[in-house]
Amino acid sequence: MVCGAALCSAAVALPVGCTMLLGVDGEYTPVPGGEGGMGLGGSVEGGGGGGDGGGVSPCGDTRSDPQNCGACGRVCTCGACVEGECEPMRVVATRPSRIERPRLYLEHLYWVESGPEGDCIMRAPARDAQTTTPQKHGCSSEPIVDIDLWGDMLHIAGNASIKRTPVDSPANLDALQGFTVEASIREMAVRHGFAYWAASQHNYLRRRRTDGTNYSQINTGGVPEHIDAIETDSTVWVAWRRMGLVYLGQFHDGLDPVPEQESTSELPGLKLAFMQFVESPDLRLFWTTRGPDRVWAYSPGGNEGVAITGPGVKSGPGSINADQTHVYWSHRGGQREISRARMDVLDTAEVVYADKTMTMEPGEILLDQGECVYWVDSSKQEILRYAKTPQVPAE
Q1: Which Gene3D superfamilies does the record cross-reference, listed alphabetically (predicted)?
Q2: CA 293 – CA 175 distance, rounded (Å)
Q3: In which domain, by residue range, is 140 found?
């Protein structure tokens, strides 16, 4: 059975029995900002940040000292100091190539890049400014439609196959045994030894162990547009979106169709995550909609989805991600911003970074397990890094 129901932008109710994806794994030790700053010229709304850096006395001119940004002894955590302001740090730049399917694992960034050899997996350090040439981690003879990381393996979904390679060193892409994909894969997730995928021509969300055993599927009533999965207390939860709807349910053997409802909202982002403000971690489901432009949260067992509110909710919300305390999202239209809210207080939305030049096109968001948020700037095909906590602008 699947315990599931549809969630639309109007906050459709879910049954009590149906109650998220952990932020991208990774650890990061902050490096003081200096070279490599984007220089977008944006100030930052919101409060927080700061503290004494220590060992900097006298301060000198804080407008030119790269280690101080607007306050004596304060460094730009995860970013760069540009003319006295904290700006995002450029970590990866690939123009004219496009950055597709970015992922963060421990201390490295991975993404798909097309070139003369076909679609290739690229790899670069996440901790440094853009100082090294990205490493080619493996190329595929067929187009790469998605990548995901689990354990020490990088999983690659092609049009009709799923392959894998070690994350720590370039190697051949080895096809997973027992995987026969009869239609083009649309999206994939790998969690707890299982691969989940949706195909472009079938109304199913499917899963199989990465060793080729234990195949099962959910009838989704239509082609899933986005999928996510997580396991907690031996229960596998899956979420997917289809035609303006969000679904959440438990994945068991012997699966039933999930009920359908009507909706027209565009759903650019969807994320499952843990919340650890309480002794026993709770699950949360987050998604963004356009028309209306909102950011939604749902707690399994609740009666309806709740719209996140606060100064950080603007027009054009897109990609969304979450760690264990906050949910983060990007705004591509109107205000070009990165925002966040506490998981347990949904009226606390605040701006993390705002681009004054209004040229940035923030795309997919990545989070480490430390202090940094990363995102793709589609306008320049760059990956930028900034602090998760809003930085106080210079006075």
Answers
A1: TolB, C-terminal domain (2.120.10.30)
A2: 41
A3: 4-387
Q: Is residue 395 one of the residues assigned to a domain?
A: no
Rg of the chain, C-alpha, whole Å: 21
Q: Is residue 392 part of a domain?
A: no
Per-residue pLDDT at 211:
85
User: What is the enclosing helix (H) or strand (E) of 196?
Assistant: strand 194-199
Q: Which two tokens stand for residue 27?
A: 């650890």
Name which of 289, 293, 385, 381 is nearest 335 in CA terms: 293
Six token digits for residue 93: 């730049």
pTM: 0.79
Question: From CA 365, how far away is CA 384, in angstroms rounded?
Answer: 10
Question: How far are the Cα atoms of 105, 139, 261, 301 from residue 245, in angstroms, in the given order?
Answer: 30, 35, 8, 18
Burial category of 217 from C-beta neighbours within 10 Å (exposed 0-12, middle 13-18, buried 19 and up) = middle
Please write the tens of the pLDDT for every residue from 58-84. Answer: 455 545 555 566 555 567 889 888 777
DSSP state letters, 302-358 = SSS-EE--STT--SSEEEEEE-SSEEEEEE-SSS-EEEEEESS-TT--EEEEE-TTS
Give the pLDDT confidence score for residue 30 in this predicted structure: 32
pLDDT greater than 50 at residue 9 = no
Q: What is the pLDDT of residues 305-356, one digit of tens each?
A: 889 999 989 888 889 999 989 999 998 766 789 999 999 899 999 999 999 8
Q: In the chain, what percentage of residues exceed pLDDT 90?
A: 24
Q: What is the pLDDT of residues 257-284, one digit of tens each?
A: 444 444 556 767 888 887 777 666 688 8
Q: Is the pLDDT of residue 107 over 60?
A: yes
Count Cβ neighbours within 10 Å for each residue of 129-168 and write b for 16 or more, e otherwise: bbeeebeebbbbeeebbbbbbbeebbbbbbeebbbbbebe
Question: Which two three-digit tokens encode residue 338?
Answer: 């990165």
- 393 in a structural domain: no
CATH number of the domain where residue 200 is located: 2.130.10.10
Question: Can you tell me the distance from the alpha carbon of 256 to that of 250, in angstroms, rounded to the nearest whole number?
Answer: 11
Q: Which of 38, 37, 36 is nearest to 380 (CA)?
A: 38
pLDDT digit string (tens) for 117-129? 889 999 999 987 7
- The torsion defined by the Cα of 346, 247, 361 and 290, in degrees rounded to 10, comes to -80
Query: What is the number of domains present in the chain?
Result: 1
Q: Determine, yes or no, domain membership for 211.
A: yes
